[in-house]
Amino acid sequence: MNDKQQQGYDLYYRSAKNALRQGNYSQAMTDLGYCHILSKNAYRKHVKIHWMMLVIGVKSGNVKEVRVQLFRCLMAFATDPFFAGTEPNGNPGDSNYGFFDKLAIPEALQEYFQ
User: Fold this and answer.
1) Contact 53/94 with Cβ under 8 angstroms?
2) For all residues of the chain together, what is the average pLDDT?
3) Which of 41, 87, 105, 110 has the smallest number of Cβ neighbours within 10 A?
4) Is residue 53 a contact partner of residue 69, using CB atoms and an 8 Å limit?
5) Mean pLDDT across the stretch 99-105?
6) How many domains does the chain have?
7) Which InterPro entries is this protein grouped with (predicted)?
8) Per-residue pLDDT tens for 58-84?
9) Between these two residues, 93 and 51, which has the higher pLDDT value?
10) CA quadruple 36, 42, 48, 54: dihedral positive or negative?
């Protein structure tokens, strides 16, 4: 993660924490999805984002999200050191997308990858 990506990560992580405190789980998941994209090659941060998504799944009562994030927390913890540095893509890491789905990086994040 370069300095520009770190700045974006920090911005969206703070926003996610604020949204979570306010009970706005949808906004928190969107912001964490952006953090997930920005932290693809930052092991600890990537695992942390999946953990936060799991917490939101529990708080919101979203059983599908809890199930998916339990698996992804385990996989991120076990595999990220081997895949760190792979090309980031726009997959936000939530239960609406497959583990290996490759998506375009969202317009809102383009500036962090230039």
Assistant:
1) yes
2) 85
3) 87
4) yes
5) 78
6) 1
7) DUF3703 (IPR022172)
8) 999 999 999 999 988 887 766 655 555
9) 51
10) positive
- Closest among 27, 50, 24 to 37, alpha carbons compared: 50
pLDDT over 90 (residue 9) = yes
Cα–Cα distance measured from residue 108 to residue 99, given in angstroms and rounded to the nearest whole number: 22
The secondary structure of 3-37 as a DSSP string is: HHHHHHHHHHHHHHHHHHHTT-HHHHHHHHHHHHH
Q: From the DSSP assignment, how many helices (H) and strands (E) are in the chain?
A: 4, 0
- Six-digit token string for 107: 């317009």
Range of the domain at 87: 3-113
Helix, strand, coil shares of the chain, percent, nearest 5, are 70, 0, 30
pTM of the model: 0.84
Other CB atoms within 10 A of residue 48 CB: 18
CA angle 24, 26, 30 (to 5 degrees): 120
With beta carbons less than 8 A apart as the criterion, state whether 34 and 106 touch.
yes
